[in-house]
Amino acid sequence: MAQKRSGILEVFRLLNEDPVTMYRDIGQQDGFRLRRALFNNFATVTDPDHVRHVLVTNAGNYRKTPIARALLEPILGRGLLTSEGSFWRRQRRIAAPAFHHKRIRTFAAMMVEETQAMLAGWREAAAAGRTIDIRPEMSRVTMQIITRSMFSHGLSEADARGVSDAIRSLSGNQLRFRDLIGLPEWLPRFPRAEVREAVRAIRGTVDRIIAERRADGGDHGDLLGMMMLARDEETGETMTDRQLRDEVVTVFIAGHETTATALTWTFYALDKHRAVEERLHKELDGVLRAGAPGLDDLDRIPYARMVIEETMRLYPTVPQIARQAIGEDRIDGVRVPPGAIINMNIWLTHRNPDIWVAPEAFDPGRFDPSRTSNRHKLAYFPFGGGARACIGSSFAMMEAHLILATVAQAWRLRLPQGHQVHPIGNVVLRPKGGLPMHLEARAPRSIH
Ligand code: HEM
Question: Which atom of ligand 1 is nearest to the CA of 384?
């Protein structure tokens, strides 16, 4: 149960450097309790009923927190992730069709092609007995994939380098103390100089590409084309250039590091759980027979999907999401004053022993459809929930499924002896210092 830590400074340090210890200290929350800390009221929630109250039942009374806005708005502008109210609703309506699972199926072959290109570079490292850091490898391949999904022709080499350098310096953007303590919203928050520079660079590139597209008028069948052409069913309006740019930047930022990190944890979990790995290999070999996986194979390799789902249960890429109450509310009989922050702890909910049998065990079979029907809809929410759930979840799952199948078909990844892995990060939960792994070829004939 909750062990006392020495105040807000320690909480702040832990949030950035050791969130898992902090979650352990918070522990499972019985009932609903608000705590006062400096300028605000806070609650941590690990009960799916409370999560449903905030994200679904009374979602209209909640908005993203000042912390999230302070962190993300200077980078993403008024994109889907940061906007609110009727503006957000309209943007979501216009963007949703582009992310529909039927539309994104067209990206499957390209996802496999990019993964194979990555694997071609692994052979040399394997031959030399070098380890490969899996996290940047996954980041690069998901970056390539989101770039080609967004702009069918990809980016010029210079643009691609500019965008990925900018994104790299943005990912280092850490929470600052004053954001955490809930200082009033009207106090200005200035992003650091390198963040401002990265934002300028990425916006400049995206603005130029949108202008070129407007000039050629063509539908390239990519995400940008879909978003440019999409009309609000209610008003017939399309997005302005500024809105398009904010959505493109949002999808870039939200749509590659997240999936890359989920895959990184998946390879870690497979090394730790050899019986699961063996069963996965058996499924892949039996169905794919050393051929490249395709869209039509995905339904025939369900265990691979379950492995990803179970990984995201134990290592949720986004370990917590938060909301701020707009007006007064009541949760489980407790009065929630306006302005209170409700922190929905995905990590702890995913390990709640009231919901999960042997919650610390890695068991992909939990996600067999025959075992999920009785589960609370918000017991598992790696993609959030309610109307503001991740718009890219189908994209991310298809991508992770195809990448996992393509990699695991050809390679076993092994952590060096004695290497300790520790999760860090307050927005995206990642292994500290990356994930160096040795490569063992499985079936060389399956490498294309
Ligand atoms: C494993 C990969 C991913 C994870 C774990 C993830 C997680 C999440 C979560 C938890 C939220 C909700 C945040 C909140 O409620 O405060 C969210 C929202 C969002 N995600 Fe993802 N995401 C992933 C991949 C993607 C991809 C691939 C894309 C785009 C192609 C994307 C685009 C977005 C956008 C635009 C939103 C904001 C939606 C809205 O508020 O309307 N995400 N994501």
Answer: 10
